[in-house]
Task: structure prediction
Amino acid sequence: MSARVRMLAVALVILVGAVGWYLWRARGADDPNAALSLFGNVDVHQVELAFRVTGRIADMKVQEGDRVKAGETLAQLDRVPFATDVAAAQADVEQARAQLEKLRRGFRVEEIAEARATVAQRAADLANARVTLKRQQELIAAGLVTHQQIDDAEARVAQSEAQLAAARERLNLELHGSRIEDIAAQKAALASAEARLAKAQTALSDTTLLAPSGGIISVRAREPGAIVQAGQTVYTLTLNDPVWIRAYVPQPRLGRIKPGMGVGVSIDSMPGKRYQATVGFISPDAEFTPKTVQTDQVRDDLVYRIRVIATDPDNVFRQGMPVTVLVPAARSEALARDH
Result:
């Protein structure tokens, strides 16, 4: 009989303990200030790195798994064709600049003197042609010249007149200098040449592939000697500093989460260790439909995505890894502030 009493007593103790544990859990679940354990995954960002120009790869400087710093050189294309383009564009700029300077300064004294001499020579040629024509016209009545000779003399007079007019126009141009329109056109030509030079210099600088930020090389997609097109992936860079974690908080506990608050992060592969993290973003949109809530039970099923930014001193976080975000109890936070 005493054995049966002992068994009943043990059963009663177990029952009371189970009920107490259940009530404690229920109270904790209903307590909005209780500590939270949120579940999520590591959301590592990756960048596909590529050259902006087409060319032959001359050097690949890093391997898969290498940690790189922002601005570090990762790969290099053959620079020779691009350096040649820069030199040609530079020569075009110098030529255009020299032509513009020539137009601005006008003609030299020696060139003007030469133009004056040309006008004088053309005037003398015209005078001689007219005298010759007059003589032959006087001799045609006596039959000493032919009509063909008269025609040739008249043609020489017309030619001399045209040459004298051209020489005078040339002298007038040199005396007055270049037109404003010509100078403006040459300025535009110089600006165009300078733009081509800047484009060539940019293409030359784009032959060097630099790390946009610190991280780890996860993929090396090409090797030296390969011809790559502009935009074709050469490396994949994993951005792991800081680590982003995607987690979800139930709607009833949303008020406990604030941007900038400190939380802890734990992972299965490092039991007992907690990494420091900060809440960086809370989504304004609920997930897990229905969006229109009809009952209190459905309202409690809604969750909101949050982004947690964590440090990774041990380099253990990997893409997609499940993690637990530990939010401390509100009372603990208040006590910590009071002290």
Q: What stands out?
A: The chain has three domains: 32-45+240-338, 46-79+206-238, 83-203. The longest helix spans residues 109-139. Residues 83-203 form a domain with the Helix Hairpins fold (CATH 1.10.287.470).
